[in-house]
Structures are given as structure tokens and as C-alpha cells.
Amino acid sequence: GICYIYLKKYTEALKSLNSSLTISKSIDAKNIIANCNNTIADIYNKMGNYQKALQFADSALVYSKHTQSLRMESTSELTLSEIYENMNEGTLALIHYKKSINLRDKIMDTEKVREMTKSIIQNEYEQKIKLQKAVQLQKDYKAKLDSQKKRNLIIALFSTSIIFLLISALIFLYFTRKSIFAQKQTLMLEQKILRTQMNPHFIYNSLAMIHSFILRNKTKEASDYLIKFSKLLRNVLNNSRTDFVSLNTEIKTLTNYLELQKLVLEKGFEFNIVIDENINTDDIQIPPMLAQPFIENALKHGIAKHSQKGLITLSFKMLNKALIFEIMDNGIGYTTSIESKTNNIPEYESLAITITQERLNNTSRKNKIAISITDIVNAQGEISGTKASFEIPFKSSFNNF
Fold this sequence. Notes:
There is one protein chain. By secondary structure, the chain is an alpha+beta fold. It has 13 helices and 7 strands. It has helices spanning 2-6, 10-26, 30-47, 50-67, 70-86, 90-146, 151-197, 200-215, 219-239, 247-264, 292-303, 334-339, 351-363; strands spanning 245-246, 269-275, 285-286, 310-319, 322-329, 372-377, 383-392. The strands form 2 sheets. Strands 2-4-5-7-6 form a 5-stranded mixed sheet, covered by helices on one side. It has a two-stranded antiparallel sheet with strand order 1-3. Strand 4 and strand 5 (322-329) form a beta hairpin. Helix 2 runs antiparallel to helix 3 and helix 7 (151-197) packs across helix 13. It starts with a helix and ends in a 9-residue tail after the last strand.
């Protein structure tokens, strides 16, 4: 059946899988039954028969729960999410996708605990072996000391060896604890990054916009907006689990983010994304959502406070083997924003930009990367907007960081 799927011969694949399903039910092989149901649901989803797909996907989820396999249950939830997404049922798609992600997180947590436990047991076992060897060495030395005249010298040497082993063990424990602390700090930074990527105000405004569409009976607009919002949420959650994503993926995420912001911002704005022709967006890998805090500041502190319609331009260009990111807006300007500060804190600065600076410094193998924020001045010498730029650490087939 799997071979037919790869060949896209779905009718033959269904015949083979239904046969396997019948045999599996006869021997009550729940794991195989769940897997067959899920695969059949995926085929019907690809064929566009969504009702059939839902029938088998629901059956797969039931059997997955009977098997108590979190991985199988996560796969079944993901299949349901994909089916509802194809049916333009954004809410149900998002619900099942969240369930799939939660199950996947549980699997990862279980695996992490298992790996940590294995590591601790392995370390304890090695320490026990070392201790047994040390004890045996001590017995051997004592046996030799009984037959040697230089008893005191050998005992001194043996005592020195024991002290060395103890010091080594203490050093080992110190570096082990230091490593665990570093991992904890990394996790805390990742949580801060995720919180800055999904601004609570943006989430609230997005949900309020959906609610507004529903109240005005604009179901199509509400559905379209919900699908875009769920895709953005899924991308951010997926990208938060990896240090690097392709530039192509990042541009799609930023485009989706900007499209949603256009609907949220009452006065509206336009945006452009410019990429150098010599940049291969599929080859270059960059840290995700570095640009998002600057887009948010451009909208909130620049364009929103200006009377004219907003324009944001994002650009990615290669300069001396360095990937440079720039964002320009036609808002009130950086200097004007500083002059409108509150409590002596410039409005244009934010915690998100501070965290972005930390990410750049932690990721780059070079010296500290500076973030430049300046006014854009027109031919008449007037401030016509703000430009922010910085170098993005990247990986590719020809360069790393």
C-alpha cells in the first residue's frame, strides 16, 4: 500500500490497505489498525474526499488512544488538522494542530527525561566502576607493601592517587552542573524569544478582528483571517524549536505577519520585501523572526503616529560576504520618537530589540554586532522616516556565520 502511495496510485493503495486493515482487526492488532486508518485518511484527504478522510482519521485517533502511543495519537491529531485545513475549517484545524503539538511536546519531554536519567545512571555506573577499581588498587598496594621495605613511601604515593581521583571527581561534578545551568539559561532565552515573537497585544487585536468579522456576518473574511493567523501561529511555534530556518521560509512568515498587521492597523499601510538577485533564499539559513520587533516598532512608533499612509520596505542584501538586513518606514522618524519619550525611556526602544541584540551576539562567532537606527532625511532636509539595519548571522553551503 505504501508503494502505491508513492506512485500516487491511490485506488490500488486503498485496496491493499483495506485488506491489511481487515487482517489487523481479525487479530486485534491495535497499533496496525490505527496506522492503517491514519494512512487511509491521508489518501482520502489527498483525493479530496474529506468526509471519508474524517471517518478514518477519527477511527485512527480512537485506536491510537487505546494503544497509549503518544506518537501515534499526535500523528492522528495532525492528520485531522490537515483535513480540516483543506476544508477551510480554520478553528478545528487549529484545535487539532495544538493537540498534536502538545502531544509532540510530551513525547519530547519524555525523551529528554529518559536521556537525562540514562546519562545519570551511566555516570553513576562509571563512578562506581572507578571506585571499585580504586578499592582494588588499594588492596593490591597493601599486598605489595607487606613485602616491600619502602612501605611508608608507597603508602604516600597511593594516598596521593586517591586525592587526585577525588579532585577529578569534584572537577567533573563542577563542570556537569555548569553545563546544566547553561542549558537552563538557553531555555529561558528561548522562552523570552517566543514571547517577543508573539506579542500579546497583536494576538488580542487579531482575535478582536476575527470577532468583529463574525459580528458583521463577514464569515468569509473571518475564515480567511483565521487561516492566516493559524498559519502564522504554527510557523512561529515550529520556528521557535529550531535555531535556523531558510531565508525563504522566514520571508513567507514575515509576509504573513505583515498581511495580518495590515488588517489590524486601522489606517492601513503598504510593504515591500526586496532581496538581492545573488541571494539563494533556499540555501541561506538564518535565526527566525529577527526582523519582527523592528516591524512592530515601525508600525507602532512610526507609521501609526503619522498622518500619511504608511510604507515599510524590508531588504536583504549581501555585502562583502555579510548578510545585511534593513527596514525603512515613512513614519515620524527616530529623533521625533525619542523626543516623545515617557519616563525618560525612548518609545522606539523595546525589550524585544534588547533580546534581538542578545540573540545576534550569542549566534555570531564574530565581534559584537551593532544595530543601527537612524533618521531618513529627504532632499529638503526634513525627517521622512526611520531606517534600522544590522548584520544577520547565517549558514549556507559556502559560509557559516
